[in-house]
UniProtKB/TrEMBL annotation:
A Pfam family annotated for this UniProt entry: Aldose_epim
Assigned keywords, A-Z: Calcium
Cofactor annotation: Ca(2+)
Subunit structure: Monomer.
Name this polypeptide is given: Aldose 1-epimerase
Classification via PANTHER family: ALDOSE-1-EPIMERASE, GALACTOSE MUTAROTASE
Length: 320
């Protein structure tokens, strides 16, 4: 299937036994690829700066390794992100038990929509860009007896900006707790993370216990552009923003390119951020979150939707 106009096209193709959609601008090479049946993930994102087309997402390279991935590469994390200790939480005076699905069976981690089949609900092409919308209906899964319609709209603009906009709507009769995060691993060319600098929009770091559950906060002293050379990060930050957007910058001086990851901030938006440098040092996870780790228990950034209520937020990625 091919849907196109002069500037953009949307292609449907096979990736092994998976079906994926390619949204691209042939004149620039800017493109992204989504896999609806595997949790609606973005498998590829390529954006151009000058003469160079950068592949920006590190994901497993084969259909089977993508299915088997336990590192949540590029996954959508909903209705919670990060860890809930022992999978237990309280909401409006009632106790709930989620499946303990983290390696080691200690915690519940990263939500209930990963690797599930999403539905393609919209695709569009205009003079401004192209977009594709995927949705998933949570109908009282184990440990989360709520009814939520979840969707994500991915888009690519003529200016070369990739956007992810999520929406969650309470389709049930009772209030429900929701938190959302995206889990991309970013790369810049073939360099190691040690060659890059990062600018994290925060002056407050979340303190963790041995189980990586929040115990409080501390001052984060590294302001401005900070070299990642030999720096190990696996931390959550409280985002600081005077505007309605906070921007994390990942820069390669050697390649003269800066990756900008913007997250909407303010009431109900993306006011937390996880940054993680994997041991291989070949990428950096930069994860915008609407709530703190374990927000189902500590309520920090937790959104509570009444019946019929919806919440939305946007993350944008661009090169400069």
């Amino acid at each position: 299937m091919k849907n196109s106009n002069m500037a953009f096209e949307i292609l449907r193709q096979q990736f092994g036994d998976l079906t994926e959609y390619v949204i691209q601008q042939p004149s620039t090479g800017n493109r992204f690829v989504v896999v609806p049946e595997l949790g609606g993930i973005v498998r590829q994102l390529s954006l151009r700066k000058g003469v160079t087309l950068f592949s920006l997402l590190k994901t497993p390279p084969t259909p089977q390794s993508l299915k088997d991935d336990t590192q949540s590469a590029s996954e959508l994390l909903f209705p919670f992100a990060s860890r809930i200790p022992d999978g237990k939480y309280k909401f409006l005076g009632k106790e709930y038990q989620l499946a303990k699905n983290e390696t080691g069976n200690k915690n519940a981690i990263h939500g209930l929509v990963r690797k599930n089949q999403f539905q393609l609900t919209e695709q569009s092409i205009s003079s401004e860009g192209a977009a594709i919308k995927l949705s998933y209906h949570l109908d009282q899964p184990e440990g989360y007896p709520f009814n939520v319609q979840f969707s994500v709209l991915y888009s690519l603009s003529t200016e070369g900006t990739f956007s992810l906009t999520y929406e969650a709507m309470n389709a049930g009769a009772q209030p429900c707790p929701v938190m959302f995060g995206w889990h991309p691993y970013f790369e810049l060319g073939n360099e190691d993370a040690d060659a890059w600098k990062i600018n994290i929009p925060s002056d407050t770091i979340v303190d963790f216990d041995d189980n990586q559950i929040p115990t409080g906060t501390s001052a984060y002293p590294f302001q401005g552009s900070t070299p990642l050379f030999r720096k190990v990060l696996d931390n959550c930050f409280v985002v600081k923003s005077n505007q309605q957007i906070a921007t994390t910058e990942l820069r390669s001086d050697n390649q003269d390119v800066t990756l900008h990851i913007e997250q909407e901030t303010g009431e109900g938006k993306f006011n937390f951020l996880v940054v993680y440098t994997p041991p291989a040092r070949d990428c950096v996870a930069i994860e915008a979150l609407t709530g703190n780790v374990d927000s189902f228990n500590n309520s920090q950034g937790l959104n509570i939707l009444g019946p019929g209520q919806a919440i939305t937020g946007t993350i944008r990625v661009q090169l400069r």
